[in-house]
Amino acid sequence: MIGHLRGKIAAKHPPLLLIDVGGVGYELEAPMSTFYGLPAVGAEVTLLTHLVVREDAHILFGFGTDRERSLFRELIKVSGVGPRIALGILSGASVDDFHRSVDTQDVAALTRIPGIGRKTAERLIVEMRDRLKALGGASFAPSTGGTRAAASPQSEAFSALVALGYKPAEVTRLLQSLDPSVVTTEEMIRHALKVAAK
Asked: What domains can be seen in the chain, in order of their start residue?
């Protein structure tokens, strides 16, 4: 099992990351909560990782904090919640927001996350309540460190939102509703997720 990676960011294409570790490029998938805190391409970064092994692929997931990775690992134990949905949950809600939704049994808040229907939301509330108490930990506040604008930020944001489970037509509507001052891929995704959650 690969526990963490330290290397230079070679490319950022949400939700995909390429990390150069001593000349070897590792492809990772990361939630948007992690992307928001990443430095610019070329900078060094350390990410906690979780390797998912399937018959047809080995997929490495990267996380900026231990709480994100711990929640991801608990989520994929829930029946009907695979790595893709877990990544979508971490992209659509902070760790604390997810804790709050489960604690208050807020099904509506969970169903606003792409890929989460009512039955899955109810299952998450039932199965995650005790697990979240065991996770505990300090209050989580996602970093909003600045990042360099990527090439074709709108198309990058479009691809990332579709990968997170939004329908292309809905993504187009969300991106068209953004303020013109929003120019980077990460900002576009963050604002689009906020609009979608309303």
From this structure: 4-63 (2.40.50.140), 66-135 (1.10.150.20), 153-197 (1.10.8.10)
